[in-house]
Design a protein that fits this description.
By secondary structure, this protein is α+β, with helices and mostly antiparallel strands. Among the domains are: 97 residues, 3-Layer(aba) Sandwich (Rossmann fold), CATH 3.40.50; 70 residues, ATP-grasp fold, A domain (Dna Ligase, domain 1, 2-Layer Sandwich), CATH 3.30.1490.20. It is built from twelve helices and 22 strands. Strands 10, 11, 14, 15, 16, 17, 18, 21 and 22 form a nine-stranded antiparallel sheet that branches. A hairpin with a 3-residue loop joins strand 10 and strand 11. Helix 7 packs antiparallel against helix 8. The protein is globular. The N and C termini lie far apart (44 Å). The structure holds adenosine monophosphate and glycine. The site of adenosine monophosphate has 13 residues, from strand 15 and strand 16.
């Protein structure tokens, strides 16, 4: 059997989970992670190249005979890694899993995504976009808009670009900060002002090869820092998979009304999309609406989803590159996965780094995915980021999975460690 060298781009729990999953494949010769973390270092060779330095990445891939790149993070896709590699005489043949720059606009520009959804009649919140040259019109527009008002920076803003204004004053201030004071730089040159949808959120994941698609397991992510979904937004404090309320009827609506028209729309726009589409959904009285598209897998959703998938991940990625997803039958465990993120005290605001992480050797029967970790010169694993470690437990019931994940989360320690103990409990009323 031919084996290949694979480069994973990113440094989060998602990338450690991808590395773990791909390290089980017989199709792999060597794995590399750029830049990776202390967890990927155990399975891959970590590569210290900035993930948007495409020249340096191409040179590295040529030197190391890399045949496939699995891109974890959106910035690399939005900046056009796929286009760069496709245009390079020595890397055009590499399988880059992820969309090209145009396809990545689904995440890179909220204005593009909203226009796309309207054009292809995909259910989403009503909206209007305003460029910074139209600040007076934007201010006037909100005066007759019902509260709350959702205001989104058009471009990538590291998850911080969405404000749900509860008052007209807050909406006004947000518009001024984004359009006038360039709060997110060019990313807020344009804003989308959107209707507020009241419902319950979940995420659907589609893997597509430009011709065929597969639905990956569903997940629910918990974005707020505080228990009871309070406080500031984070990258994600935990996840559960599958989503108990995502029954066959809801998923049929998601596929018919959202997934198929999205893929048809991409084909009509001549976008050859080979990669993941992560669809953030709001379910309003049983009807799904798209809150956002992302062009890569979620973090921490990946840490919850991958342990449930039995299918060989490298074979799956090759099928994406070769447009052979129709030959794959995805095998998914019926178990529940519960993922909890251990974070540095203070996150998502200022936090301290370089705290010694203890107890990792105590963990049994749960997965430990590193995110913001590194090794000091003595080889000790220490904290490096806000989100430090994701713990995933798999069990036949959600309750058991949550109990196991909480138990493991209590065994790992570092100074000022924090994690949410309420994740997943809101879903109990939906369990049959
Ligand atoms: P995003 O960064 O697009 O994922 O948005 C962050 C969060 O804002 C989402 O997870 C939702 O909870 C919330 N949100 C975004 N758009 C809307 C909307 N139109 N109605 C209600 N909540 C929204
Ligand atoms: N967990 C949300 C994201 O990956 O964007």
């Amino acid at each position: 059997m031919d084996t290949i060298n694979i480069l994973i781009i990113g440094s989060g729990g998602r990338e450690h989970a991808l590395a773990w999953k791909m390290s089980q494949s017989k199709r792999v010769s060597q794995l590399f992670a750029c830049p990776g973390n202390a967890g990927t270092a155990k399975l891959c060779k970590n590569v210290a190249i900035p993930p948007t330095d495409f020249e340096a990445l191409a040179a590295f891939c040529i030197d190391n005979n890399i045949q496939m790149i699995v891109v974890g993070s959106e910035e690399t896709l939005v900046k056009g890694i796929k286009d760069f590699f496709a245009a390079h005489p020595l890397t055009y043949h590499l399988a880059v899993i992820g969309p090209d720059q145009q396809g990545a606009q689904l995440e890179g520009s909220k204005d593009f995504a909203k226009n796309f959804m309207v054009k292809y009649q995909i259910p989403t919140a009503g909206y209007k976009s305003f460029h910074k040259s139209a600040l007076p019109q934007a201010l006037q527009y909100i005066q007759t808009h019902p509260l709350p008002i959702v205001i989104k920076a058009d471009g990538l803003a590291a998850g911080k670009g969405v404000v749900i204004a509860q008052t007209y004053q807050e909406a006004q201030k947000t518009l001024q900060e984004m359009l006038e004071e360039a709060k997110f730089g060019e990313a807020s040159d344009t804003v989308v002002i959107e209707e507020f949808l009241e419902g319950i959120e979940m995420s659907a994941f589609v893997l597509c090869d430009g011709k065929n698609y597969l639905m990956l397991p569903t997940a629910k992510d918990y974005k707020r820092i505080g228990e009871g979904d309070t406080g500031l937004n984070t990258g994600g404090m935990g996840a559960v998979s599958p989503v108990p309320f995502a029954d066959a009827l809801l998923m049929q609506k998601v596929e018919e009304r959202i997934v198929k028209p999205t893929l048809q729309g991409l084909a009509t726009e001549k976008i050859d999309y080979r990669g993941f589409i992560f669809i953030g959904l709001m379910c309003v009285a049983g009807e799904p609406y798209v809150i956002e598209y992302n062009v890569r897998l979620g973090d921490p959703e990946t840490e919850a989803i991958l342990p449930r998938i039995h299918t060989d991940w490298v074979t799956l990625m090759e099928a994406v590159a070769q447009q052979k997803l129709d030959t794959i039958q995805l095998e998914v465990s019926d178990d529940y996965a519960a993922t909890l993120f251990l974070v540095s005290g203070g996150y998502p605001e200022a936090f301290e780094r370089h705290k010694k992480i203890e107890g990792l050797d105590q963990i049994q029967e749960t997965f430990v995915f590193h995110a913001g970790t590194t090794q000091d010169s003595a080889g000790q694993i220490i904290t490096q980021g806000g989100r430090v470690i994701a713990i995933t437990a798999l069990a036949p019931t959600l309750q058991q999975a949550l109990q196991q994940a909480n138990h493991s989360a209590s065994l790992i320690n570092f100074e000022k460690k924090y994690f949410r103990k309420d994740i997943g409990y809101d879903l109990f009323p939906f369990l049959k």
